[in-house]
Amino acid sequence: MLGFGLFLRRLFRRRIVLIGALILLVLIVVALAAPWISPFDPNAVRVARRLRPPSAVNWFGTDEYGRDVLSRIIYGSRASLGIGASVVMMSVACGTLLGILAGYFRRLDGPIMRVIDAFMALPDILLAIFLVAVLGASATNVVLALAIVYTPRVARVVRASTLVVRELPFVEAARALGVSTWRIMSVHVLLNVTSPVLVQATFIFAYAVLAEAGLSFLGAGVPQEVPTWGTMIAASQSFSDQAIWLVVFPGLAIVLAALSLQLVGDGLRDMLDPKLRKSL
Amino acid sequence: MTVQGDPLLSVNGLSKWFGSPSQGVRAVNDVSFSVGDGEVLGLVGESGSGKSTIGRLLLRLLDPTNGTIRFEGKDISALNERALRPLRRRMQMVFQDPYASLNPRLRIRQILGEALDAHGLARGKARAARIAELLELVGLSADHADRYPHEFSGGQRQRIGIARALAVEPRLIVADEPVSALDVSVQAQVLNLLQDLRRKLGLSMVLISHDLDVVELMCDRIAVLYLGRLMEVGTAEEVNRNPRHPYTRALLAAAPKPDPDAPKAQRLLKGDLPSPKSPPSGCVFRTRCPLAIEACATTVPALETVAEGHAVACIRSDVQELMTS
């Protein structure tokens, strides 16, 4: 086990990873502190000030109802990042469970992995659109749909690691001691598959933020009255030729979030993989 | 408890085939031996001879294909995992690789505690004391308990592995090459520890090794394996002084001697271990045996007693001279 300080120092040895982590940190702080830092009420309609370009008052301009775009982006980060985080948690939980079961119990391996292969054969966004269409468009269902879409990725990675870990001598030692199968899976295997899961989780976070925006833009996601980065772009479609800022700023937010998560994920992968190879 | 006169562990006709019966690997073939109370049996052989497989079969970490394993007078060869649980307290294993046999993500306290928890031993307040006691028993100190495995050297890790095995107070320990992954300087320390513990706790042991010196030092009796079959079994003294099987003799002759003036060891064996997928007919050793005759290809030699406590599986064991051409 690495100490936390050493962990961070190794992770940030590459400057670009540090930049990604800082952007991510800023986004998270912004989301958490939204009520205190947002200059206006994100839903306050002021028709007199509609479609104003960026100015000293409205830094990112106003939309077709005169609502402040900056405030809406700040509040939108809550929904966008919140949905992303929920998707990560759900898909990591389900994927880890399925992956360990498939990897540890050889008899479950076939059935579980064939279903997972079937899900992975479908394009992510199409599957998500289909699921949202079936479940109905709401923030909860978007989370559910995306969690179903990304669970197979986690399950595959976890299964592969489990196959390695289950053959290691310390698992054999635990069996020789009479340690229960449940404990072997939930302690010995779980603790030793966390590194690849962590890497996957960061990437899934990035995909989920992008996918939520995509779904909302297509109208197959969060209802438009809820400000998310995706719904903001979707709502501005018909004004985008006269008010380009309505597209640019939410778009930038999406890019920053996805990019920073990808950078951190890359950093984690580069740091954890060689160590993983050494320790396994 | 053991029935009087019954050995602690007795193995009869033990076989293990991996893969299909027709094409699979015959890792262990019709092996029989016993280990008495407080006795140390050495299992010797080259890599691929099936020693580690036997160790795992004894602990039922693998299921035998054939044969019986009796422990404390009870047949354990067909018990399921649940029925084995109480037995796990009575027999334990020390592993070869001290770097892989401890979970890198757990503290020593958790590693030893898990052994105790598995059998409901030393609960509550007694736990910390028991963990400290175990660490001291293997020559470590109580404040090592809160460290992670990577903070220890190979020798120390192996001590922790031994402490884990001892946590459940077993009667029998199967030690699978316990020192072969360690530096030579550390090997002696760990072997001394094992011997001390054996004396102090009255342990029986099955010591798996390819190192004849280790086996000679540690064991009361020695069983020599070749390609999954027993070649020779006898007291350590008998096997070392008076080896009867040509394979044992070749092994002993090949062992390096500490005396620089001693005549150079002759290489009596040529070639490699044949594939256990298609072992030679008759005596499995005949393809490398300097004494092989035609009859060796047709009969599988049975283990026959040649002297008190000394059995050999060779139809040529009466031939004393190993030919050196």
UniProtKB/TrEMBL annotation, chain A:
Entry-linked InterPro entries: BP-dependent_transpt_permease, MetI-like, MetI-like_sf, OppC_N
Domain ABC transmembrane type-1 residues, every copy: 77-265
Principal location listed in the UniProt entry: membrane
Family: Belongs to the binding-protein-dependent transport system permease family.
Keywords: Cell membrane, Membrane, Transmembrane, Transmembrane helix, Transport
Membrane topology: Multi-pass membrane protein
Protein's UniProt keywords contain Cell wall biogenesis/degradation: no
Protein name in UniProt: Peptide ABC transporter permease
PROSITE patterns reported in the protein's UniProt record: ABC_TM1
Membrane-spanning ranges: 16-37, 81-105, 125-150, 203-223, 243-265
Species of the source: Bradyrhizobium iriomotense
Subcellular localization, as worded in the UniProt entry: Cell membrane
UniProtKB/TrEMBL annotation, chain B:
UniProt keyword ATP-binding, yes or no: yes
Keywords in alphabetical order: ATP-binding, Nucleotide-binding, Transport
Protein family (similarity comment): Belongs to the ABC transporter superfamily.
Main location (coarse class): membrane
Signal peptide, first to last residue: none
Origin organism lineage: Bacteria, Pseudomonadati, Pseudomonadota, Alphaproteobacteria, Hyphomicrobiales
All copies of domain ABC transporter, residue ranges: 9-252
Molecular function terms from GO: ATP binding
Protein's organism: Bradyrhizobium iriomotense
Stretch list, region Disordered: 255-280
Transmembrane segments: none
Pfam families (UniProt xref): ABC_tran, oligo_HPY
SMART domains: AAA
Subcellular location: Cell inner membrane
Function of the molecule: Involved in beta-(1-->2)glucan export. Transmembrane domains (TMD) form a pore in the inner membrane and the ATP-binding domain (NBD) is responsible for energy generation.
Superkingdom, natural source: Bacteria
SUPFAM superfamilies membership: P-loop containing nucleoside triphosphate hydrolases (SSF52540)
Name the UniProt record assigns to this protein: ABC transporter ATP-binding protein
Entry membrane topology: Peripheral membrane protein
